[in-house]
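Students often ask what a 'structure token' actually looks like in practice. Rather than answer in the abstract, let us consider Aminotransferase class III-fold pyridoxal phosphate-dependent enzyme, a protein of 458 residues. Its sequence is given first.
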Amino acid sequence: MTDLSNSRTRDTDSLLHPYANAMALKENGVQMISRGEGIRVFDDTGKPYIEAMAGLWCCGLGFNNAELIEAANEQMAKLPYYHIFSGRSHETALELAEKIKALAPGNMARVLYQSSGSEANDTQIKLAWYYNNARGKPQKKKLLSRMKGYHGVTIASASLTGLPYNHRDFDLPLDIVTHLRTPHHWREAEAGESELEFSARLARELEETILAEDPETIAAFIAEPVIGAGGVIVPPEGYFEAVMPVLEKYDILMIADEVITGFGRTGEWFGSQSFGYVPNSISMAKQLTAGFAPLSAVAIREDMASAIEENTGKIGSFGHGFTYGGHPVSCAVGIRTLEIYERDDIPGHVKRVSKRFAAHLDRLADHPLVGQARHAGLMGALELSPDGSTRMFDRPMLTGAKVAAELTARGVICRAIGDSLAFCPPMIITEAEVDELFDPVEDALNAAHDWARSEGLA
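Now compare that with the structural description of the same chain:
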């Protein structure tokens, strides 16, 4: 039997950890998480932490839901694996697809499964290309994304992502992608520019980019309803209302990346519903199974589905799919997850409890280390500043990491995204638990502020 008595340091000799400085981990070790219960996880010493990021934005029902465990066990005993290739299928894949179609906006007609959000967005690119080839527009291949947008880490989806650390030394992004301005009014607006004016300017910039690139070469625009891993950036008033007519004018697909915002996170079933637009296709993952099993899905509208299906008849096959796409155990967990969301009205619960969540964030906006508080449903962030203005730190990322460390020491796991503190707790969180989550935040900010002043950062 393997001896894990020194697991905190031994782990760094076994794994290459994503999104981490490997040399720092070798020196400091890693935090080992051993179990979960409700909105909390426990480390290997038994210390509890409120998991204020729902893991990686995904455990909407917390960390020990007995119904999801039961669904996985039942399906494992019945049919632990099968595929949906070459004319075969199984009931759980079909049933979940029907549920997704019933909940998704825009009369989605077909569902295609993968295992991760990255694979879903990679699939979106291939579908956009296949669709345009099928309808006789093979030149429409370029893709539009946004700076700070996050769409995955495969070669193609990482190219859509607008974050430098996803590109550096990976020889990315591919030249098929053009990144547009981040829709971050607080930081990007001109002096005196209202949110509506800012949105109108971004729509004009979008059209100028389309014309410069040639509309007949652009396949799709991908956007998260709320930018998640780029800092929980909530779109300004009127943003999607301004953008959508431009895309429609030039026959450009709108891909909604709902990997984080899907299934109640913003207080509606999908984030695109919260912000008043209807996409051509949707990527979803994470809370599709409440994080209990790996599964993602792409849903497309009837016009895309018909063109794609007719083209398979012409060329003989649809040459795309994943071994574990539509895995019966994952689909069974997804079915039960959506049943719980509906039965317990999780979107309605989020809408109610998010008022308390927003009030805490707004209160903390007055802290001298905070420049802006922002939120949508149960997603929120505090963007830090050396003096409460839009000015950035001379040495970025240090202060955000310090606040996150101070919060961890106080029993709350959040995420520092540069110098923004992100919060995305399990959607089952109660108002009392929201209060518990935010109880130590001001103390952590105070400690980090003292440290930042001692280091000459604030």
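One point worth highlighting: Confidence is low (pLDDT under 50) at residues 1-7. Ask yourself how you might have guessed this from the sequence alone, and why that guess would often be unreliable.
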